[in-house]
Amino acid sequence: MRKLILSVLLITLLLPGGCWDMREINEIGLVMAVGIDKSSRDPNLFWVTVQVANPQGSGSSGGGDKEKNESQVWIASAEGRTIFDAIREIARFSSQRIMWAHNNIIVVGESLAREDITPVIDFFTHNYELRMKTWVAITPLQASDIIKSNAGMGNIPGRAITEVFRFQKLTGLGLPSDLLNVFHDFSDENNHILISRLTLNQALTEAGLANVSENIVEQIEISGMAVFHNTRMLGYLSADEARGLSWFLGEEPNSVISLPHPENSVKAVAVEMRSVHAKIESRLNQDMPEFTIEISGTGHITEEDISSSLTMDEFKSALEGLAEQQIATEVRSSVSKVQKEFRSDVLKFGSTVHVQHKKEWNQDLKYRWAETFPEVEVEVVVNVSIDSSTLNQIPQRNYKERS
C-alpha cells in the first residue's frame, strides 16, 4: 500500500501544474465592440472593425492625457466575403488571439442594415463565445466611425457604450435592443425588428475654459430606433417617437415628462413617471381585429417653478389629466407612424392576436396580416396617479418673492 501511495505522489509531482489550455492575459485580445459595414471598395464585401482592449495599455483613472486613454484599445479593420472571413483577416495581423466573450456591442452601418441584416444575426448567433445579451445598434454613420470614436467617460469606449445602454431606461427615449431580443423577433414570423439607433453628437465639456472650441467633444448617444420589415431596415423613429412605443413595449419604462402648469401654460411642471405597466388587448369585429392599449403608472412631481392657487389635491388631479393626455398623444402618434408609414408590425399586434384568438389567426388572419395591420383600429387608455410630491410643497421662487 505504501508503494502505491508513493507511486501516485511521484506521478503527481511529475505532472505539469495549472490548466493545460490556460492563456496569459497578455496573450489574448478581448473584443470590446465590433462594427459591421459594407465595404466601400466592393459592396459585395463586408468591412469589419473591432475595438480590442489592450492589457498593456497605460491606464488612467481620470485626468490622464489623450494618448494614454487611446492606448487602452487597439482598433483594426479588414474586409472579407463573409463576416467570418474579415475577422480571420484581422487575426492575420493581430499579435493576440481575438476572443469575443467580453464583447459589449455590435454596431451595424445603415447601408448594410437597409440591404439585409441576416448575415449579422446569423454569424453572431452562431458564435459560441458571444453572449446573447450583447447590445445591438444601427448607426446612420459608418459603424467603423462609432468603433473608432474616443467618446464616453471611460478609457474603453466599448464599455462606455454599455453604460449608455444600461442607463437608457432612465430616459424612456427608446427600447434597449440586445442580441437575444433581436434574434427572437427575427425568428418569429409574426414580429419585425426594432433596433436602437446610435450616433455621435457634439457636446460641450469643461465649460468656462478660455478656448471653448477645444472643449467640444463627440459623445455617443442613443437617439431613436431603426424599424425593420423582415430582414431590411425601412427607416427611423425619432427619440420622442421611440418613447411613444416604450410606454407599452418597454419593461417598466421610467421617463420624465414636462407638462404645462395648470394655471399658467407658459410655465412647466416636471413629472417623473414610475411603475409604468401596460397591456394590449385584442378583439374581433367582423373578422377585423381591434386593439386597446392600456397604460397605467405613478407620477411624482419633481419640479414646479411657480405657485398655484389650487389645493394640492386639485393640482395633482389637473396634472393627472394632462399627463394622461400627453402619454396617449405620444402613443397614438408613434403607432400611427408605424402603421401608416412603415407598415411593419414592430408593435407585436400579430403575436397578440395569435395568442388571444389563435383559431381565427391560424385560419385566416395570418395570411392577410400584412394588408390588415395598417388598417386596424387602436384605442389608447391611460391612467396616471400622481402619488406624491417632494417634501417641500412650496416652489422655491415663492420664498424669494416674499422677501
Topology:
Layout: H1 2-14, E1 28-38, E2 46-53, H2 66-70, E3 73-80, H3 83-92, E4 97-99, E5 105-109, H4 110-115, H5 118-126, E6 135-139, H6 143-148, H7 157-166, H8 179-187, E7 194-204, E8 216-229, E9 232-237, H9 239-249, E10 255-261, E11 264-285, E12 288-304, H10 312-342, H11 349-356, H12 358-363, H13 369-372, E13 377-388, H14 396-402
Parallel strand pairs: 1-4, 1-5, 5-6, 6-7, 12-13
Antiparallel strand pairs: 1-2, 2-3, 7-8, 8-9, 10-11, 11-12
What does this structure look like?
By secondary structure, the protein is an alpha/beta fold. It has two domains: 24-237, no CATH class; 251-403, Nutrient germinant receptor protein C, domain 3 (GMP Synthetase, Chain A, domain 3), CATH 3.30.300. It contains 14 helices and 13 strands. The protein has helices at 2-14, 66-70, 83-92, 110-115, 118-126, 143-148, 157-166, 179-187, 239-249, 312-342, 349-356, 358-363, 369-372, 396-402, and strands at residues 28-38, 46-53, 73-80, 97-99, 105-109, 135-139, 194-204, 216-229, 232-237, 255-261, 264-285, 288-304, 377-388. Strands 1, 2, 3, 4, 5, 6, 7, 8 and 9 form a nine-stranded mixed beta sheet that branches. Strands 10-11-12-13 form a four-stranded mixed beta sheet, with helices on both faces. A hairpin with a 2-residue loop joins strand 10 (255-261) and strand 11. Helix 9 crosses helix 10 (312-342). The longest helix is centred in the C-terminal third of the chain and has 31 residues, at 312-342. The chain is globular and about 70 Å long. Residues 18-22 and 58-70 have low confidence and may be disordered.
